[in-house]
Amino acid sequence: MNSSSFAARIKKNKRKVLILSSFLTGLAFVGITAGISFTFKYNGKHPREEVQQFVKKVKYVAFNPEKISENSDFLAIKSLLFDGNTLKNTIKLDEYLIPYYFSEDSKQLVKFAQQNQKTSSPVFDFVDLNFDDLNQNFIIKFRARQQITDQKIAYSDFVLSPVSFYDSRKFLKADFNFALQKITEKIEEAVSNFNTIVSNFSEENSDLAKNHLYRALDFAAKINSSENSSQVEQNLAQIFPNFTDLISSIRNSKENLIPDKNTRIFDINFAKDAATNQFVSVQNNIATMFLQANLTQSALDQLGDNFEINGNKIININLESKDKKSIFLDVNEFFANLKLKPLVYNTEEKETKLVISKQNPFDFFAKIKSQSNPFLKNSTIKDLINPLLAENLSLDFGNFNKSIPSDKQGIDFIFDTPNTKLVNDNGKYVVELPYKIVLYESFFDNNSNEIINQKDLILRIEGFGLPINSNIASSAFGNFLIPGTQKGIIYQQEPLFDNKSANLSQFISTFGEPVFAKVPLNKEELDNLILKRDYKALADKLSLPSSYNYNFDNFEAKVRSWSGQTLIPNLDDISRFKNLQTTTSINSSNSSQNLAVSSLVSNTFFQNPSDVATFFADYIQQEPNKIAKTFFELAKYFGLLDQNRSSLQIFDDDLQEDIFKKAEKINLNNKNIQVLSFNNHFEDVFNQGFFSTLFLPQSIKTKIGDLKDKSASEVLAALKDQEIFKESKTNFDLNQIKENYKQSVKFSTLADVLLAFYLKSAQLSNFLAWEKIDSNLNYEIVFQKGNEISKQTLDQEIKKITEQPKPEQQSQEQPEQSEQPEQSQQTQPSQLSEQPAEAPQNLTNSKNYEYLTLNFYYNIGDERTNKFSLQTPVRKILINLSTEKIDPKVSNQEKLNSLADSIPSALLNFEVNDETFTKISQLQTSTTGQQNDQTSQTSSLETHLTNLKNTKDYFSKSLDSAQLKFDIFPSFENSIKTDTINFLLTVSILDSSKNSQAQNSGQNNTNQAEVLALRSLKISVKKSNNSQSSTQNQQTS
After folding, report:
1. CA 297 and chain centroid, separation
2. Region entry Disordered: which residue ranges (predicted)?
């Protein structure tokens, strides 16, 4: 074949190497890989099926234009690749050959993605390349391969395909498309490396949107407000300057330049999505922007007239990271990681800083629990915690700590103080303070206060010092201190306002509070009880009315409150209390100064004033609206409001600041009452009864002013200076308290009642002393013997006291008590200011008495482990003891007490029909106040209540050798009950020997006989519900 014919044949068969677009058809959306990646997953199909389908997709194979020039002909390529008929050893076919396929969406040729031999995706094996001199072309033999396991590989069948030639204009089109692919990939790569969009708060450029975190929706709203592409870039520069810089650099990048001409291939601008007509669309928190790529006029000129223009190319840019997460703030993820920063404790004492290891955990816990002002509560709690810290409390924003200012609006943490816990963690006390983080819409610079998210967390405050007694080395008592200073202060206040002389105070401090009995314990018996550690039995004996009548409950009631064992009624329980309205005398010479009292009486609840204080301590932690609604109901039970009055949801809204303004509008129906009390605690108002008695002094009413103009915060702030017990000192003495009590105004509105409650709260430090430590605590009383005191020493000490001026003025100022309930004798506190001056003097004449200082305290511990770790302060009492081996008084009293304590209820509670009830009622009415005919009173009652004989027989048969006397008196309770009549039955054991002497002398035996033992019991006679019933011996419930 001659050269001319050969040249003609070459010309005829000559084809330019196929270089096709390596882009997704139509300039694919961002996030879609330019080449198709096929991942093999074994799903039960034949292992070769995937590779067979993969290899069938190949439509063309072309030489790589980067390796072979577009102007190369068959002979040039053959010479480059072959040595004779053999492929050169240096040739790697996968570098010289590129396979193409038709895309399923645009049906245009697309280059396969670059092969990665290390993945499990199918790859091509180019096995052999041959040439055909006759047809002037090359034939490639190849197959697909996929690694299934480490040992197994799936292969497809071999495929033979020619390598074809096309003209250069086709090549240029592919080159432009390839350039656009590179541009797209570069944008995607850059965007995926952007951090979450937060404006740079250290940036001084005021044009940037500062203090702002952007969600995808915020970003979309800002950008979509743009009118055109130019304005998009202006808005974008304020939020996302890195993005605008990226687009600017892409426009001038080498990928966007026509080779050898340095003119742009594409004009790139932001465009609206055709479907939404928005510059930004958002789906699943991923924002997508749209770039329109138009071929420049220079590029069109290069392609020539034969180029088919398919319209503008739209590139979808998904603003997401490499792991397919939004580059904008994910609110849920951001909020999930929010918490308070770890606490860093201060280690040096400074002017405004404390060292936590020197703080009592119980004091700190109680202070947190006692914050009653909901408007200042959160800031007050911060003020309690921050002095312990090297850095103040603040939120931990994680990776955004440097970006978000500490004072950023729209996010807050709120403490839940009522649910704070004090936890014993392996002997170390930890305060667990719940708090809520709330995220508002305004956090993102919107005007809305809508809550986006909120969650509950717990702040652990630890590192407190162990509350061990500092005097433990010199003390006989080695337990921990009482839990909290305020608790210790109130525990020790007995009496509450102490006006004792210095000598009397010194006497009590040295020897103890004198508590003497007419029938004292035998010394041997006391020693045995202490030796057996039967402390409860000893406390019972010391508290018997017929013995020492010592009121331990004033101390134990406080211990009950700390242990969570106080029996607290709900409002439904209180609604069933009896209401007694009476007066109490302030000055016996001036009846006009009497105060009107309303008292709620219960035989089950509130037996001690501290029980009421515990009830108040629980309510002071509630929201003001709940407190107001509670006292609205209590006002009805106290008889201040009619029972049918309704609050009409007046306190149901969230305007807590307005409770006094609202309460001022609620006028009371009964405007005569000045004092509110429970179980007549007002009778002891200058001692323990002060805790539970509510009254409003005129001075406070005047100081606060018109309540209808006062917010709750203003009222509470005005009461702050009323705190009485602070750091072991009292701000008021007894005379001041008396003066305030005399000034008690009449309650006229519900606001007055609320003000009296909040005043009591301020006086008693928000009832801090009664704050519960835990619900899983128990306690026990412990006695330890102190020094024995000789009669001579005691007489000398008493002489020192009695030489002082008698406090007659003080006794005159004591209010003249209204009628006292007999059944409450056991709970009446001892009057320490009166007893030592007279009682010791009268009782020390007995040669058979010895005197002993007896120490007692309470241990408090974990109910579950029965381990005691806390101890109350030690109290001292000075008691007299009998030294007789056999003391008939002690023996008889013990027998009588034992019988009285175990008497069946049926012998004290009776039901009678209407007729009998009327007769008994008339009987008690006609004899009320008469004490001159006790025997006839007993006989008269026994006439109508025949089964009373069984009660008398119960004692007579058990004490058959003793002479007994039975007396019956009406009870004060009959004035406040209509369906029950109560009597007091007094059982006395008389000295039979003296009675015999009296009989011989002809004297009245009942009046002359000495009483060896005495015990009073309450008998209840109830009207039967069945009007036909005539049974008098049925037991009442």
Report:
1. 70
2. 803-845
Quote the pLDDT of residue 556. 95
Asked if the bond preceding 495 is cis, omega within 30° of 0, the reply is yes
Cβ within 8 Å of residue 351, ≥6 positions away: none
Do residues 712 and 624 make contact, with C-beta atoms less than 8 angstroms apart? yes
- Greater pLDDT, 545 or 674: 674
Cα 995 to Cα 997: distance, rounded to the nearest angstrom: 5
d(CA 774, CA 564): 6
Average pLDDT of span 2-13 = 40
* Alpha-carbon span 1037 to 214, nearest angstrom: 70
CA 378 vs. chain centroid, Å, equals 12
* Structure confidence at residue 959 (pLDDT): 85
The first and second tokens of residue 920, run together, are 């008994």
Q: Give how far the C-alpha of residue 675 lies from the chain's centroid of Cα atoms, to the nearest Å.
A: 35
Token pair in block for residue 282 = 């958002």
Q: With beta carbons less than 8 A apart as the criterion, state whether 430 and 461 touch.
A: yes
Q: Report percent pLDDT > 90 for the chain.
A: 35
More confident residue, 518 or 159: 159
**Which pLDDT score is estimated for 130?**
95
Position 777 pLDDT exceeds 70: yes
Check: CB of residue 839 under 8 Å from CB of residue 828.
no
Domain ranges of the chain: 3-166, 173-329, 332-461, 509-562+777-885, 566-770, 893-1023
What are the structure tokens assigned to 121, written together? Answer: 């995706």
Say whether 940 sits in a helix, a strand or coil.
Answer: helix
Whether residue 972 has pLDDT greater than 70: no
- Locate the DSSP E strands across 441-498: 451-461
550/856 Cα distance (integer angstroms): 12
pLDDT band per the 50, 70, 90 thresholds, residue 834: very low
Q: How far apart are the C-alpha atoms of 600 and 638, rounded to whole Å?
A: 7
DSSP percent split of the chain into helix, strand, coil, nearest 5? 40, 25, 40
Tokens describing residue 458: 């717990």
Q: Please check the confidence at residue 864 and state whether its pLDDT lies above 60.
A: yes
Q: Average of pLDDT values for 927-937? A: 45
Give the residue carrying structure tokens 């019988």: 899
Yes or no: say if 515 and 550 are a contact pair by the CB < 8 Å rule.
Answer: yes
The pTM score is 0.59
Task: Answer left, alpha or beta for residue 648, where phi above 0 means left and psi between -120 and 50 means alpha.
Answer: left
Q: What is the pLDDT of residues 265-295, one digit of tens each?
A: 999 999 999 899 999 999 999 999 999 999 9
CB 595 within 8 A of CB 744: yes
Q: Computed over its alpha carbons, how large is the radius of gyration of the chain?
A: 48
The total number of residues shown for the chain amounts to: 1037
- Six token digits for residue 366: 């109680």
Mean pLDDT of the chain: 79
d(CA 765, CA 495): 18
Q: What is the 3-state secondary structure (H, E, C) of 888-931?
A: HHHHHHHHHHHHHHCCCHHHCEEEECHHHHHHHHHHHHHHCCCC
Residue 29 has pLDDT above 60, yes or no: no
The token pair at 89 is 């050893």
Q: Are strands 97-102 and 82-83 parallel, antiparallel or unpaired?
A: unpaired
- How many angstroms separate the CA atoms of 248 and 253, rounded? 9
The CA distances from residue 987 to 293, 352, 824, 897, 967, in Å, are: 112, 66, 18, 10, 7
Lowest mean pLDDT among 538-547, 712-721, 944-953, 998-1007: 998-1007
Strands 1011-1023, 980-990: pairing is: antiparallel
DSSP β-bridge partners for residue 601 = 578
Contact between 56 and 48 (Cβ < 8 Å)? no
Closest residue by Cα to residue 864 from 566, 611, 563, 421? 563
For position 483, what pLDDT does the model report?
64
